[in-house]
Amino acid sequence: MSTSTTYKRGVEDRRILVEGPLGAILLLEAEASGGSFSLVEHPIAPRALGAPVHTHAREDEYSLVVEGTIGVEIDGHAFEAGPGEIVLKPRGVPHAFWNPTDRPARILELIVPGGFESYFAELGEILAQPGPPDLAAFGALAARYELAMEPDSIGRLAQEHGLVVPG
Length: 167
Description:
Blueprint: E1 15-18, E2 24-28, E3 38-44, E4 49-56, E5 60-67, E6 70-74, E7 77-81, E8 86-89, E9 95-98, E10 105-112, H1 117-127, H2 135-144, E11 147-149, H3 153-161
Helix pairs in contact: 1-2
């Protein structure tokens, strides 16, 4: 963090946790809020799946769309959200998100309580390894964060919403 003050965070204080079709940029770590929340920016490439259907046991997420359009499925209901709109994804409720357009999208995600940003840091390390992604490592990571993933939803979401999924 910048030594100028603890009351302001600059661009230089951001940390890229995940690079790829779904990026994760840490804007504010949990420690800065006493663990109350963390703030992550997610750039989402055109026609990219942000996350398959998954359910958080410990976190609520609030996504502010700042650029483009995102598609969202929450508890089986799909809709789109655009700039200025906020999507509420409560813990215990299955959800997924993606970019349904041919233009980049970007969301700011408030994660309550904080700490889940560590998931993205570990995910970034797994994805940075050479070769195909280690599915066992993905499973272990999800289990540590009490995240129930539904990988079978990937094909359905890609087909229904015209997404390009690396394979």
